[in-house]
Amino acid sequence: MSATSASKPDLLARDRAHLIHPLHDRKLHDQHGHVWVKGEGALLYDADGKPFIDALAGLWNVVAGHGRKDLAEVAARQMETLAYCSGYAGSSNPAAIELAERLAGIMYPKIRRFFFTSGGSESTDSTIKTARYYWRMKGKPDKNKVICRQWGYHGTTLAAMSATGISSYWPMFEPRVPGFVHIPSPYPYRYVGPAGVSQGIAAANELEQAILREGPDSVAMFLAEPVQCSGGVIVPQDDYYPRIREICDKYDVLLASDEVITGFGRTGKMFGLQHWGIEPDIIQFAKAITSGYFPLGGVGISEDIANVLDTGDKVWMHSYTYSAHPVGCAVALKTLDIIESEGFVQQAAEKGTYLLNQLKSELSDHPNVGDIRGLGLVAAVEFVQDRSTKAEFPPTDKVGHRIHLAAQDRGLVTRLRGDCFCLAPPVITPYVTLDRIVDILKASVKAVLG
Question: What range defines the domain where residue 40 resides?
């Protein structure tokens, strides 16, 4: 029996018998499991035939929407010509070369060299190892610590998990990799800093204080997402990142921008830090570069860092079997064509503004809606027990989870961070579907919270 012809109960039974899932939770899968069999535009279809709005674009990645034949055809052509070759030193392929050239033309000006991975976690590990190699080759081997932020998400391989600042990922896998330090998020809705200093500057100064506590000669890098998306769509204050760049320069600390989600137009700019007019020394990316049609990610580095890799007297002993995969690079090139020809940056800016305004119009007067925020086509609604104090619901109430289940009953799927309801639909999502997202969320909130 083929998977597509089987019934949903049968498929779920076979799933239970043999599959282990990311963030494995047997109860969740048993009680509320989906078996996706088709995607079309901003919709996913369950095995029982029911359509759902994909309000998180898969996992923030399917920016061009589901079911695009142009991306499938590019992948098929590349597979017929050269399905795989090694990307190790001494080997290359035309698609990888062209993709690196293409990225150099659209990236932050100082980023000109690229290493390709299979996804975001691999990109994080590559960034960490590159920073440590760089300082070792510069004669400063003690500069190996990485400073990150609470609510930052950088992946779940052991080093990436140690960088991630969402503590629920840690307990079952302790001890974490040493050398990672976390500072508070700028989190405009919740960060409290000293009086007399703007919130953004005070939050940025947390980095300076951490560098001084650890010792500047021990800190290699500050790793941060322009917008902390998985952590609840936390958009920083306008004066935050310019001050961060100043601090990194002052103490000779590399600034690494995790743009696995924010890269390639999602926030209404091609890359996230462009909103604040600064450049990183390292950028890591994945997700939207292939719109999820093939696993591909990467790291871009400044010429200064690249020169150290080129001239270092020790080989950069870092590698992945699928680095510079020709099929992934071909799909990425076609995805970049789509992003540019269909104006994804402008679409994300305009549709994001529309979605945020609709959310505020329909939900801001609800007594349990504490904050509605976003940048470009990524947004979140944070639910609280008491608006006046910003007090959160007890975790045992599972308010976010219950709203999420109510939304699924009405044909919408996404992901949460606690009681923060996250939204990042495909960039191609029609306005009528954005309206439907808001309608479903409003009805779900009413069903759970009154």
Answer: 34-64+343-449
Question: Are 184 and 281 contained in the same domain?
Answer: yes
pLDDT < 50 regions, the chain: 1
| DSSP helix/strand/coil, 245 | helix
337 and 353 assigned to the same domain = no
| DSSP H/E element including 147 | strand 145-149
pLDDT tens profile 220-268: 999 999 999 999 999 999 999 999 999 999 999 999 999 999 999 999 9
Do 379 and 362 form a contact (C-beta atoms < 8 A)?
Answer: no
The two structure tokens encoding residue 437:
């997202």
Shared domain for 200 and 302, answered yes or no, is: yes
CATH classification at residue 378: 3.90.1150.10
Q: Degrees (nearest 5) of the Cα angle 122, 112, 320?
A: 25
Amino acid symbol at 342: E
pTM: 0.95
Give the model confidence (pLDDT) of 154-197 as tens digits: 999 999 999 999 999 999 999 999 999 999 999 999 999 999 99
Q: What is the number of domains present in the chain?
A: 2
Q: Which stretch of DSSP H or E encloses residue 116?
A: strand 111-117
HSE (CB half, 13 Å, CA atoms) of 27?
Answer: 0
Q: 320 and 286 in one domain?
A: yes
| Pairing relationship of beta strands 254-258 and 282-285 according to DSSP bridges | parallel
CATH number for 170: 3.40.640.10
Q: 260 — phi, psi (to 5°)?
A: -60, -35
